[in-house]
């Protein structure tokens, strides 16, 4: 009997092993190809518009087929194990949804939905000989698994960064279909983790396109002013593709009389430098140059500004001159629809609003925003703080989580490396001061400096100590960054507004400080005394006293109060006041200015 049981145990464990191996092969993660630079300056076919979708809270379309590698999901025409599944889940009868766009604000029944939704798009295509095709997503929140004509082409995790897959072998002349499994469930081991103060908008939230490139193609480039030598432009070009790299890359900047040729060799990365005297980019003169880069039959157009940014003691120097950052924090939420912002019009409206406030700086919180925001900021002359969602309590002692954060950091830096507006990369927001967190964020900083040594590093911290007279900045993380970001809610979460003006701030570190958050909530249109919470007067009073307070901080070189516009947040349920909106906006969700708007605008006029 004992032998019999043992025999079964052996057989069962072999079975388990095989099943596990099959599942692993099946789930094999195909990671995106290296991110392609400047999609909007290339030859593309847009897949934006109407897609069909199926809501799948139980992941039926995925897990029912999890052991058959080629029959994932609900695709029409795919070989299915169960015909009944095919009948029930045919995309032909499915409803339509717009891409780009979050699902929450498009369909009432998806307002609070968190889970899987399958997206499908049918399209016709004509392939050109000797071209390669990359399927590019601006962003999908949070996890995407992508199929072309029923074949899995890859997956991506992280809701705010771009990714692309080479789909050349799966794309056909004539009818094609792309299917995407989108899952926005919050999990403890994600970046961000389960707890945030913003809406978890799900869906294909940014544009989708097919980019056509030659067999050997220019996948990435960076062109910028050398930080140490004023009249030198330097850069890197990165080639990719199945064919051999040979020939020249031509770089021209007609307005500067630049026509350079860079010889490529078999290796994929080449650096170059040349002399030029560009007019420098700054908020007052946001000069951008047309840049043309050609290689192997492809010509890419870009508009690039040239400037330097550095710190010296407690100063931030833009083009060698000390500058004060008059900023505001912004969430990527549309001023037009109150859903996730993605369009150029959204970007123009949000950033124009910041300009009218008197800003020369914006903090794009709390994750990388869509590319329009950076390109419009370049054009309008707004300096940018760009950040990854290492927010609150991500699992700092988990290596997988670290890799996720590092991946998002690399994707953020890659995409926006040529934007003059971006002057600093932020690693984290309000993280608890522990050893694990210090190791985690210090490693991110090291990585960021390796990827881009030309920009400043920051992090927003709320971990200061109290002293007899006020507050001491002593978080060890502050010693790792170039600019110390401080979030402080004097008069709202702590203390009373009138007591804030007298608070004395000290810092252990000789570095520039940005007050990266301050603020208070107010329901636009609600009026009362300045000590009545939720009134516009209360919010204005908090601003008045906090601005007096920051004026006494000797190392203060900028601020980005919280926040431009009221934004949706499930953490804000207070009936008739919040109704799931964080009310700390200087304008309401409809764009109506509150009293505090004018307080900050007047303050910036004097700066
Ligand atoms: C913070 C967070 C921000 C919140 C804000 C608030 O400190 O960084 O994400 O939305 O406070 O309104 O409480």
From TrEMBL:
Stored Pfam families: Glyco_hydro_2 (PF00703), Glyco_hydro_2_C (PF02836), Glyco_hydro_2_N (PF02837)
Molecular function via GO: beta-glucuronidase activity; carbohydrate binding
Keyword Transmembrane helix: no
Record-linked Gene3D superfamilies: Galactose-binding domain-like, Glycosidases, Immunoglobulins
Residues of the Glycosyl hydrolases family 2 sugar binding domain: 46-214
GO biological process: carbohydrate metabolic process; glucuronoside catabolic process
Chain ranges of the Glycoside hydrolase family 2 catalytic domain: 310-576
EC number(s) given by UniProt: 3.2.1.31
Superkingdom of origin: Bacteria
Protein family membership: Belongs to the glycosyl hydrolase 2 family.
Protein name stated in the entry: Beta-glucuronidase
Organism annotation: Marisediminitalea aggregata
């Amino acid at each position: 009997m004992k032998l019999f049981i043992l025999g079964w145990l052996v057989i069962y464990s072999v079975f388990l092993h095989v099943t596990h191996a099959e599942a692993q092969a099946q789930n094999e993660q195909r990671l995106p190809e290296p991110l392609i630079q400047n999609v909007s300056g290339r030859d593309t076919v847009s897949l934006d518009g109407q897609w069909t979708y199926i809501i799948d809270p139980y992941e039926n379309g995925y897990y029912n087929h999890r052991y058959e590698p080629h029959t994932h999901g609900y695709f029409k025409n795919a070989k299915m194990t169960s015909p009944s599944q095919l009948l029930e889940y045919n995309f032909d009868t499915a409803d339509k949804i717009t891409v780009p766009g979050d699902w929450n604000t498009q369909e009432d029944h998806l307002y609070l939905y968190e889970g899987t939704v399958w997206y499908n798009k049918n399209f016709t295509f004509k392939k050109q000989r000797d071209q390669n095709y990359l399927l590019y997503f601006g962003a999908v929140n949070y996890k995407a698994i992508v199929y072309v004509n029923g074949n899995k082409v890859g997956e991506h995790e992280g809701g705010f960064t771009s990714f692309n897959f080479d789909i050349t072998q799966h794309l056909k002349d004539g009818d094609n279909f792309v299917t995407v499994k989108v899952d926005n469930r919050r999990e403890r081991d994600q970046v961000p983790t389960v707890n945030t103060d913003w809406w978890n908008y799900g869906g294909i939230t940014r544009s989708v396109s097919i980019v056509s490139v030659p067999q050997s193609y220019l996948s990435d480039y960076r062109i910028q002013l050398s930080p140490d030598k004023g009249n030198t432009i330097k850069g890197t070009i990165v080639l990719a593709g199945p064919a051999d790299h040979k020939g020249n890359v031509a770089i021209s900047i007609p307005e500067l009389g630049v026509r350079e040729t860079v010889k490529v060799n078999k290796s994929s990365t080449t650096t170059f430098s040349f002399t030029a005297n560009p007019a420098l980019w700054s908020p007052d003169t946001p000069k951008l140059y047309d840049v043309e880069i050609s290689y192997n039959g492809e010509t890419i157009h870009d508009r690039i500004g040239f400037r330097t940014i550095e710190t010296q003691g407690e100063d931030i120097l833009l083009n060698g001159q000390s500058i004060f950052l008059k900023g505001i924090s912004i969430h990527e939420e549309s001023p037009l629809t109150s859903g996730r912002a993605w369009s150029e019009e959204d970007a123009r409206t949000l950033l124009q609003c910041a300009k009218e406030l008197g800003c020369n700086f914006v903090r794009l919180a709390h994750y990388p925003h869509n590319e329009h925001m950076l390109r419009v900021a370049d054009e309008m002359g707004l300096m940018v703080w760009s950040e990854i969602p290492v927010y609150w309590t991500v699992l700092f002692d988990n290596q997988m989580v670290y890799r996720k954060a590092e991946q998002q950091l690399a994707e953020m830096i890659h995409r926006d490396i040529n934007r003059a507006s971006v002057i600093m990369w932020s690693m984290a927001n309000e993280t608890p001061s522990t050893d694990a967190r210090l190791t985690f964020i210090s490693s991110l900083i090291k990585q960021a400096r390796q990827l881009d040594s030309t920009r400043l590093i920051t992090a927003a911290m709320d971990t200061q100590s109290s002293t007899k007279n006020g507050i001491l900045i002593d978080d060890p993380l502050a010693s790792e960054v170039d600019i110390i970001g401080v979030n402080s809610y004097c008069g709202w979460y702590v203390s009373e507004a009138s007591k804030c003006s007298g608070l004395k701030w000290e810092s252990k570190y000789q570095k520039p400080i940005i007050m990266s958050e301050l603020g208070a909530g107010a329901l636009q249109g609600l009026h009362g005394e300045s000590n009545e919470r939720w009134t516009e007067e209360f919010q204005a009073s908090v601003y008045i006293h906090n601005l007096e307070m920051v004026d006494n901080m000797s190392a203060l070189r900028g601020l980005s109060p919280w926040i431009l516009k009221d934004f949706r947040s499930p953490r804000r349920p207070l009936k008739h006041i919040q109704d799931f909106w964080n009310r700390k906006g200087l304008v309401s969700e409809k764009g109506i200015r509150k009293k505090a708007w004018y307080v900050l605008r007047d303050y910036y006029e004097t700066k």
